[in-house]
Amino acid sequence: MYQILLDRFGQRAAYWGTMAAYALLLGLVALSFSAPAAEFRYGHL
Amino acid sequence: MDILSTIWLAAMAGVTAAHWLAPEKLRSWVLPGLTAALLGWLSPLTLAFLLLAILLAWGSQRLAHSGPAIALAAMLQLAPVIAWRLNAQVPLPLIEGIAIPLGLSYLALRGMHYVLEAYKGTLPRHELADTAGYFLFLPTITAGPIHRFAPYLADQRRLRWNAALFSEGLERILFGYVKVTFLANVLIDTHFVGWIDAHHTAQSATHTYLTIVAKGLNGYLQFAGYSDVAIGFARLLGYRVMENFDRPLTKPNVQRFWGAWHMSLTSWCRDYVYTPVFSLTRARSLGILASMAVLGLWHEFTLRYLAWGLYNGAGIVAWHQWRKLAGERLERQLLDKPALARAWQVLAVLLTVHFIFLGFVLVQHPSLSEAVATWARLLGL
Known about the structure:
The complex is a heterodimer of chains A (about 45) and B (about 375).
Chain A: H1 2-9, H2 11-32
Chain B: H1 6-21, H2 27-42, H3 44-62, H4 67-89, H5 104-120, H6 128-135, H7 138-141, H8 149-157, H9 163-199, H10 205-236, H11 254-258, H12 263-281, H13 284-299, H14 303-333, H15 338-364, H16 368-378
């Protein structure tokens, strides 16, 4: 992700953009972690 | 061992720390050792089958000059999964009532790969410890990808701390959890499915159609997310495991879809089913149908999975026919008409996704007749 942002927006924006994206995604995962999981059969093959 | 379980999260953190903190000389033993210890604690039967597979694989490598010995070894690698698949239909003595060991289907494919490559003489020189390390590779044990021995060994031999790879691994794990927890479980399975149920009459054509779309998207996100976590975990340990998905829902035909969905399985079927069948018969369609039938039956020994495999195989064969009869000519005609070519591309992607999602209906119901009834509901019947 950092590399994609670096190529387009420069080092500073890439660093903060990546950190913000990671924080957002981590937050989403934390909030969603206990949501009821759909059946996923591949793990049981 | 679900990736959302505390045990899995603790195992990823603990194994990664132990792997890199161990003295370099012992490092190649840490991962297989901890994998064996974890499986011995969680599922001794799984560990027993893994150890048997390792011994059988190593033995077959020593007897690689003998065709019958290799054939027997390959069948023995496959036998446990065949037994459990049959047991699901008709209870078999000895294993009746015993749950299938973790990742047994994946183990069978890795075992077959190792044995067949040993016969072909393509395995790099290695020791028993390398074979054990290949089979006792925690990241991919439960849900793939079905990685190959040669790239595993290459990574194992040049194992060095690599901060960039470690960082890629962390990012990949995060993306995987976003797909599984947020996109699949919350957005699709809770909100989208809830919206479908609230706004459309159950059993109506629209409800049926949207449910098929939701299940298709959910299946993709779940499986791609699991693969991301496995690939990311492997990178934390310094290994590059083969990719399992390459944006399959953007592919413009069934052949390319199956080249981008569960790629480690489809490439296995290409190498060990399609290629031998094609070499023997020179009939491409037969090779395609055989490999897709095996792909279906690998999931479950039932008529519905056989039908699903053949449905997709027939889709690929039909696409080849269409391409020969009209597709290539059409593509040439669209070369100097970029807007029309783009529109055709979008239409082709939509048709492909619908063909695939409608095919999933075959395995989303316990019987074929219910699947056919679901298709009929789409037509308002």
